[in-house]
Amino acid sequence: MDELLADFIAETREMLEASAGEIVAWEADPTDSARLDAIFRFVHTVKGNCGFFDFPRLERLSHAAEDVLSECRAGKREPDRALVNAVLAVIDRIGELTDMIEAGTPLDQGDDEALLTALVAEAGADRPVPSAGSAPLSSGAGEDTAAAPTPATPAQRSIRLPVSLLDEVMKGVSDMVLARNDLARRLRESEARQDVEAPFDRLSGILSDVRDGITRMRMQRLEHLFGSFPRLVRDLSAGLGKQVLVDFEGGDVELDREMIETIRDPLTHIIRNAIDHGIEGPGERLGSGKRDTGVIRFIARQSGNRISLVISDDGRGIDAERLGRKAVTAGIHTQAQVDAMSEERKLHLIFTPGLSTADSISSVSGRGVGMDVVRANLEKVGGSIEVSSKPGKGTSFHLRLPLTLSIIAALTVGCGGQRYAISRNFVEEIILGSGTGVEFAQVGERQLVTYRNRRVPCIALCDVLGEGNDGETSWDTRRLVLIRMATDEVFALGVDEVFDHEEVVVKPLAPAVMDTGLYAGTTLLDDGKPMLLLDMPNIAASLSLTRQDAGAKDLFADNDPEAEAETVPAMLFTALDGHRKAVRLDLLRRIETVDRDSVDIAGGRAHVVIEGALIPLAGHEAGDLPDDRCRILRLSDGESEIAYAVAEVLDAIEIAGPIVPDAQDPAIEGITLIEGRPVTLIDGHAIFAAHPAPAQRARELVCRLPGDSDWARTILTPLVVAAGYRVASEDGQQADLAILMDDDPEPEAGASASLIRLTADPERSTADTIYRYDREGLFAALRCARAGGRG
Amino acid sequence: MSELLLICRIAGRRAAIPALRVRSVIELEAITPVPRAPDHILGLAALRSQALTVIDTSRALGFAPMADVTGTRAAVVAHGDHVYALALEDTNDVEEALSDPQPLPGGFGEEWHHVAKGMVETARGPALVICVERLIEGRRAEAA
User: Fold this and answer.
1) Of A21, A31, A130, which is closest to residue A80 (Cα–Cα)?
2) Which CATH architecture has domain B4-143?
3) What is the architecture, at CATH level 2, of domain A409-516+530-557?
4) Contact status of A511 with chain B (Cβ, < 8 Å)
5) Cβ <8 Å between B82 and A508
């Protein structure tokens, strides 16, 4: 027999048993609306499941009963004895049909007409209700389920056990394991070891098997549950002419079997609602710019002893206003109350009993029982459900479920002499604080660690636990556990030691301990000592390490085009102090290699001469310049230039990651990660602000020297170059300045912008003619000419 | 009248815990501390495969914390879904109450008032009957 079918039968029977009491109570007092609601939910659930399994007879019966009960709930009909009897007869018939399905008997088109007629009969009509036994069925209505006919095809028998019994057995096995461990320790120290070693090992082996078996009894991967959804979605969406895909994440999360059973129904209801009300038809979807196929997405995560399950669709979302209006129409709230509600509160109305969002009732859903049942079922097991919705974008339901007893894979770490467990779900990597490629940086009060292209916040477990020794935390000696949260944030948790990977049974903690917000549960070490399981999501949240809107982003990641980060092009280089730094590529004009001799460092000012241009030098403060040749980055702000001395030019890069500003050092724009290593991005503004030299576009200034003389070449040329001019090489070249000896002929008009005349005879120096060894006079003239040349 | 009481010593005083509430009396061994927990919670101890929350009964009343509790006795009691070990300075026998718990004119003192059910007479003298729930809650409930 199909496993799903077996589940259906078991579930229906369970509900029948559970509702037997309700039915009797309702019969005694037909006006009891709480009973009415419970019975209504039962037939509604049966109806839904039947649609899935294709049992038309069952569906027709349950649908008819649901109709009648719905009228009663709406107050359109008074439940009287005849009606109660008719409903009871239908419920009995459902039980019989369930037996037949289990027995594998094909369901013929039996005669249910009498039952159906009785249902719709007018109130007070004194019609005899046909007993269920009058229908041609093999088994009686009141028969005990155990006496049901044996299935024709013997399938794997399954039984249902009370979970408390399983808990007890599990606890017994855990005790046995601890006793075994204790015995093993004593054996190691004892003389009798050799005699008993073989049987002891055998006992250990058996015990492990039993333990595994018990564990499997309780745990089930979520994918078992997910497995039935694609078919359900397919059938439902096909019936409505919609196209819907299902997407699962976290199917390997293991969950207590009982919990899986508990959430099966709620999830089915949510899927129905999503397909019926949420996801639009292909035409409408294309019209609003979506793909014609809708998506229902399931994301499951385990966090400590809770499972978080998000079901989201990309449909039209919930109309909160309409929910509000309906609440008013149904008399649940007054208009004033609804008006005062926040959007969120209005959305929450979806969980109110008797409120349906659909204007039309279809066979799939839309009677307003769905979500109140869902919430009731989840809250019964200590879970919770929340809804969020964006009009036109979709709806998501966030379920949180407890794990009363669960086994999780954990990493055990040491801190302050104690061991703590961290759920392995969160552990991405373990790195040594002293390892290569691990760099620490302190930004404000936050510690950062850089490792493999990532800079992440770093927190010390002992600080979190308040076990710190108040001294400086020495990060180098620690081990870092990289923690990745469900929302994809990563941070490093510094611990004293990392011990082992273990499978641990998590047990709940006393309320006073839970209130610390640090622990998700406790577990026992092999030596029988309790160990605390850290509640990483809570710890991360308390340190503000998680984004508040992370859940939303997770859900609508596909629709979020802003995720593309902008990159910053930059030039990577090694500064003279050996550190890797970068400068924005926009600032960089050229890379030069200059002789050491071209660099002049005197006092607070440093300059370098490049191609005859005198450029303020920066970057030399970091370290000593090389003796022979220097690599220079020529930076420009568009007007003036600054030469930045570096040890080595590395590469042009794209900075994709965030640039973290450093408030301490104004000379840098920030720190970022390149190839896993931190790189300081130098601040162009600060550099240019620190060198407010006049814009020196001297390289465009060309100076023509007087004639071809040794004096001009050897004495004058360096002087002119040092002043930031380039010496004209060819005769015909356009020059900004011409230097002539006093006996040279007047140059052609327009050959140069300005003119300096020199004389070899100090006696002949005038206001216009400078003695050729009058250094100051010459410099003044050069400066003056440059000012004119630039103007 | 004939209620059985576990006679013990809390903060130097003779106290009594209703014996029906006590599952067993254990000797405390290694205790796993719980950083940042309320200070009347000493930590966790194991009883077979069960983790017990160990309560410092003296601190829970607002007196000074107990000295090293290793080796001291503790009464194992259940409260809610959880099991606690109440560390006691001394445990004597189980005795029969010779009277119903009585209030005392003038009260039992500020610290005791919150947890006291009343004074009972036993064969070996009076003892203060302690309300286990209040003891577990510690002074947290008072502060709230």
Assistant:
1) A31
2) Beta Barrel (2.40)
3) Beta Barrel (2.40)
4) yes
5) yes
